[in-house]
Amino acid sequence: MPPPSPRDLNTVIDTLLENRVRSLVHRPVREILGSMDQAMQRWLDPDSPERPRAEVRLPETTGLSAAMIRHVLPRIFQEYRANRLEALLVDELGSLEVLDRIVPSSLGRKKAYGPPLSVHVLAGNLPGAGLDSVLFSLLVKSATLVKASSTEPILPLLFARSIQEVDSDLGACLSVVSWPGGRAELEDLAFGRADVVVASGSDASLTAIQKRTRKKFIGYGHKVSFSLVTKEGLVDAKETAHKTAYDVALYDQQGCLSPQLVYVEEGGAVTPKKFATLLATGLVHWQTELPRGPVPPEVSTTLRKVRDEAEWQTLAGKDVVLHASPHGTDWTVVYDADPIFVHAPLYRTIRVKPLRNVEQLREMLDPWRPYLEAVGVAAGPERMATLAEILGALGVSRVCPIGTMQCPPLSWRHGGRPRVGDLVRWVGVEREM
Amino acid sequence: MTSYALSPVDTPRNHIDACVLDFIAAPEGKDFNALALDVFAHQFAHNLPYQRFCLARDKTPETVQTWPAIPAVPTVAFKELELTCGPPEKTFLTSGTTRGQEKRGRHLVPDLQLYHASALAHFSQCVLPEKRPLRVLSLIPAPETQPHSSLTQMAEWVMRDLGAPASRYFIDADGLHLEAFAEAVTHAQETSEPVCILAITSALVAFFDWCAATQTTFALPSSSRMMDTGGTKGTGRPLSRNGYLQACWKYLKVAGYYCVNEYGMTEMASQFYDHVLYNRFRKSNEPRYKIGPAWTRTLVVHPETLEELPPGEHGLLRHFDLANCGSVMAIQTDDVGYLTGDGFEIIGRTPGSEARGCALVLDEFLSAQ
Questions:
Q1: How far apart are the C-alpha atoms of A118 and A24, rounded to whole Å?
Q2: How many CB atoms within 10 Å of residue B233?
Q3: Cα–Cα separations (whole angstroms), residue A180 to A6, A121, A195, A239, B286
Q4: How far A417 CA sits from the closest chain B CA (Å)?
Q5: What is the pLDDT confidence band of residue B361, given thresholds at 50, 70 and 90?
Q6: Whole-angstrom Cα distance, residue B107 to residue B77?
Q7: Is-contact A40 A74, C-beta < 8 A?
Q8: Who among A254, A295, A309 is closest to B304 (CB)?
């Protein structure tokens, strides 16, 4: 899509703000939820107009395989159903009604207001990432401008269209634009006029966006996640490995929730080294079911370097074992006895490392604290609580079962923060004593 | 045609070295493939980690019939192991990174004679084709600063064996001596004695910046020439090849066909040069690209499949160098280039790959530390 002129962009924002006042601010939140649910229903229906178009276009714009796109699309949208959205609003705001009127609460009366204009900067080509924030923004009755990635504007556009189709009043409060990064006049305009800017991207791009923001800025930087297989998780090691392989394969390991390394506790039914073999078998399976997308030449080179390094470490007598797809660089598993945390070059390249005990995690992860996001855990229910305490203290925002890492529930507090709560401001009304 | 009837194993090192030296001394009419297979057999027999690497690919002197099939060792291997066929006469180290965290590659050279013969023969052909000794002004660090640098070793040999008296270094333990270099250039200008400048590109860029800042220009006597290596990346002021050539003319009055870019690596005894000066000497007018000596071959392979690519297609350079007889002759680089004419052109080193999604990549983490 062509970038707008500054004048066009100004008009788009003016129109969004007018539409908000006319048809969104006084609308009961339940109505908005109802319309959203209908729109999301279309995404769950393979015969809807949106799904086939997305399935055709997204492999090209995201670099993911067609099979992967078909697989992830319904998984993205099934979380955005009305009952889940409502549960999240109630959890974070106390009730739905606080968005409609002043309501009594145990500590007096209050109402939550969404920002007049929120701007959402969607980064990279991870399909679906950031669309949840767009929904939250509409739910708090904010005029919502989406700045899509210039390489992948398709899904945000189709998403906006699906809302427009079921509810034109609501759709009129959402607009998708795109321009290549660094267009100062457009960015100054959009971010400067926004009451809230929600952005995801690298630390460098977030800093650049934040500089142009005058009011509130919510940034989701790049993060690191990993998998943790305890002795209990090794009871059915094959199944655990299969699920871990799914976490690695999904989105070709591009997500901030994709595991970059697998720690395997020693002393279980199989050794960490054997687990690496099982993980490789799992990746063979997912390569058939959900093939990796094509990668640019420089990525192939980087992945080959990881393989070369592992092979030569083995030849040098180190306790390192390489498992690699026979042709190309489709998947790579490296078992490395050195437990130090190293992150992956992604695209289904993962290291398996042994862990003497879970306490060792503190030492290994200390330098990574600011970057930790999710941990996929395979453990019995008894140990899960202890592990969650350790991981939470390290700065992790999500602890989940292995095999679900890239399917976060709506309630996940991305970056450890409230999602809807971060968008609103409150008015409290006190009584005369 | 010379025959290299050697047994595939247990070839005495000095015998195969002698064959390679013989090839370097008079390559005309010699059979590269035959000697490459002998060198491979020698390395397979004496370089045991390399042998294991080959066996993992079912490649042995019995199964390999042509030089392109000889298994190529990735440069990362030199960081993990000592890849040599015998005790080293000298060990060269790759340059450390600015972050200083990365391991340095080690190239163990059992017989420096081969390196010496190869480096000087091809340098002579590409930089001094007239075979007339010139005074060398070196903007390559002196040996006491970089005792393990293969580039410095080469500069040392060029100055000693091909240079005229009073050749000298302008980079030592105290740093880069731009004013002394300018004085030497002035001296050449005044005496009309042509010089040969050997330089790491970044040092020349610093000199051009100094010229610009002091509003100084020079006019080196005709036949003066410059060999640069390393490129301008990391100088804070990346300069295109054309920009570089313009600066050579603007500040030193050295024409483009006297500016020869060198491409070499610590892991290889032979180097590659722009063949502009060589062509001028032969009165040929081919466009600028890199050529290797007769005892090397270069292939370009696809980074994903490692299959050979036809001329013109971009991929990773893979070099075969008989002068690497004492270590490994087949080297797989991360350098991106393409085949052209009877040589190749290099585009650059593979940059750190940028991930498409929202997962953290290494460069970001390191830059945040």
A1: 14
A2: 13
A3: 14, 12, 22, 43, 40
A4: 17
A5: low
A6: 10
A7: no
A8: A295
- C-alpha span between A252 and A304 (Å, rounded): 16
Backbone conformation region of residue B158, classed left if phi is above 0, alpha if psi is from -120 to 50, else beta = alpha
Joined together, the tokens standing for residue A59 give: 């492999």
Who contacts A393 (Cβ-Cβ below 8 Å, separation ≥6)?
none
Tell me A148's DSSP state: E
Q: What tokens does B214 get?
A: 């002091």
**Cβ within 8 Å, pair A311-B53:** yes
Which residues 6+ apart lie within 8 Å of A131 measured at CB? A76, A80, A122, A155, A156, A159
What are the angstrom distances between the C-alpha of A183 and each of A4, A14, A210, B125? 11, 20, 14, 50
**pLDDT digit string (tens) for B23-60?**
999 999 999 999 999 999 999 999 999 999 999 999 99
Strand partners, A422: none
Q: What is the ipTM of this complex?
A: 0.87
Name residue, tokens 């032969």: B282
pLDDT reading at B94 higher than 80: yes
B213 C-beta neighbours (distance < 10 Å), count? 8
Q: Which amino acid is at A51?
A: R
Out of A126, A301, A315, the one facing B81 most closely (by C-beta) is A315
Non-local (6+) Cβ contacts of A210 within 8 A are: A197, A199, A217, A219
Pairing of strands B171-172, B163-169: unpaired
* Chain A residues near residue B302 by CB distance under 8 angstroms: 297, 300
* DSSP annotation string for A19-81: HHHHHTTTS-HHHHHHHHHHHHHHHH-TTSSHHHHHHHHHHHHH---HHHHHHHHHHHHGGG-
Amino acid at B151: L
- The DSSP secondary structure of A151-176, one letter per residue, reads S--HHHHHHHHHHHHH-HHHHTTEEE
User: Is the CB of B303 inside 8 Å of chain A's CB atoms?
Assistant: yes
Question: In angstroms, what CA-CA distances link A197 with A88, A161, A187, A346, A417?
Answer: 21, 22, 11, 29, 15
* Cα–Cα dist B219/B238, whole Å: 24
